[in-house]
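Working notes for the structural subgroup meeting. M.R. asked for a predicted model of this chain before we commit to crystallization trials. I am recording the input and output together here so anyone reviewing the notebook later can reproduce the run.

Input as submitted:
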Amino acid sequence: MDLVTVVLPVGATLVVAIMGYLQWRRSERRQAVNETALRELAQADRRSAARGRYYQQRLQALQELLEQLRELEIQSRWNAGGRDLRAEVPKINAFLIKRGEVLEDEERQLARQFLAGLTWIDQHQAEDRLRWDERRERERAAHGVDIGPYESSWESTEGLDWVPEANEAAQKWMSARDALEERLRQALQGL
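Returned structure, recorded in token form:
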């Protein structure tokens, strides 16, 4: 009986100590799992916030790019002063470089395609204007008749269909504009 009275309390103490240790290990594991889950959740939140800023910057860059290209298109259409729009190309290229981290390669390529088509048409129109002005001076000198400014020739002119490169340039310009506008629509929809 003496042995039982000594062993029983020691055994019970050992059992309680072992159970306490096992309980402590389980709680430590759970706490480690919870801390890992919290860290992963925090990282996911930070990534989501960064992604949101990225998409916002991308959306803003696409909007600015399209706005600049539309302004250039409007200038081209109203270019009564005969200003060479090729001078605007470095500004657009600088924008593409500055916003390169959020614009995709295809979007930069589409912008360059837009510029190539539009500046070709603009340059062709500038050459037509120059030829018209020369013809106007010849008519004035030879016959004393003023055939009018270049803009008056627009009534009798047709499209540039007779110039094969014009169709190609117009196709480049319009398809690039349409593709960029579609990219903007997708960005606005969050796709």
